[in-house]
Design a protein that fits this description.
The structure is a single chain. The protein is of the alpha/beta class. The protein has a single domain, classed as P-loop containing nucleotide triphosphate hydrolases (Rossmann fold). The protein has seven helices and ten strands. The strands form two sheets. Strands 6-7-8-3-9-10 form a six-stranded mixed beta sheet, sandwiched between helices. A four-stranded antiparallel beta sheet has the order 2-1-4-5, with helices on one face. Helix 3 packs across helix 4, helix 4 packs across helix 5 and helix 5 packs parallel to helix 6. Bound molecules: adenosine-5'-diphosphate and magnesium ion. Adenosine-5'-diphosphate binds next to strand 1, strand 2 and helix 1.
């Protein structure tokens, strides 16, 4: 039998409790999951079920109230901020619903940014950014700024930026949420290609059509895992 792929990210009984005045919200009420290399996950569930909270923890953008998080085999739960941002830059790429590009920066500068944060010099990062722009079909738009691009093109810049430091894991929160359905499908084909090239993808969506591209579907409910489905969507 084939050995299972290595575990890329693992949460162990993570909880996230928000306190606002006397109210407590169990945004995550004890979640344990393993994400293996090369899997493509869709996280589904109604609004408020904890999808974004989980993705933010996986992205080291937030910390759990309790529980452990292991990324690339290392326990990140207790890491200092600068160590955490380094591991985030090396291992994770982010794709957001609103693209989150820097408006004043060009396509190539936006793609360079994660490399800049890792201390990679221009003479290395600029050609790589240009190559990534070509990879996502924007080789003719290097000097454009985001406002000069369509939504789909902006999301392609964001995908190229997410790939800049060659991370194993891509995290996407509603990556097609601001796009028309044809453009959304185009972005999903691109993510599907990256999955076939071996990337681990974890994507939040509430659209079944979009989730159908994934190989594993995680349904969240009230901060808990409701169920997991593997294989093509039936
Ligand atoms: P989803 O992405 O599935 O819509 P979220 O993870 O954003 O859900 O939120 C889960 C729950 O946690 C919701 O009840 C939400 O109101 C609450 N929540 C999320 N972020 C915060 C916050 N920063 N402060 C207080 N409550 C929050
Ligand atoms: Mg959300």
């Amino acid at each position: 039998m084939d050995e299972p792929a290595p575990i890329e990210a693992e949460v162990q009984d993570v909880r996230k409790i928000y306190r606002i005045g006397d109210e407590t919200v169990n945004a995550l009420a004890g979640v344990s999951l393993q994400f293996r290399r090369g899997e493509f996950w869709a996280i589904l569930g109604s609004s408020g079920s904890g999808k974004s909270t989980l993705l933010n923890l996986l992205g080291c953008l937030d910390r759990p109230t309790s529980g452990r998080y292991l990324l690339a085999g290392r326990d990140v739960s207790g890491m200092e901020d600068d160590e955490l941002s380094h591991i985030r830059l090396r291992h994770l790429g982010f794709i957001f619903q609103n693209f989150n590009l820097i408006p004043q920066s060009t396509v190539e500068e936006n793609i360079q940014l994660p490399m800049y944060y890792l201390g990679i010099h221009d003479h290395e990062s600029l050609p790589r950014a240009q190559e990534l722009a070509r990879l996502v079909g924007l080789g003719q738009r290097l000097k454009h700024t985001p406002i000069q691009l369509s939504g789909g093109q902006q999301q392609r810049v964001a995908i190229a930026r997410a790939l800049a430091n060659n991370p194993n894991v891509l995290l996407a929160d509603e990556p097609t949420g601001n796009l028309d359905s044809a453009t959304g499908e185009e972005i999903m084909r691109m993510l599907g290609d990256l999955h076939r090239q071996g990337k681990t993808i974890i994507m939040v969506t509430h659209e079944p059509d979009i989730a159908a591209h994934a190989s594993c579907r995680l349904y969240m409910k009230d901060g808990r895992v409701e169920r997991i489905e593997r294989g093509p969507m039936s």
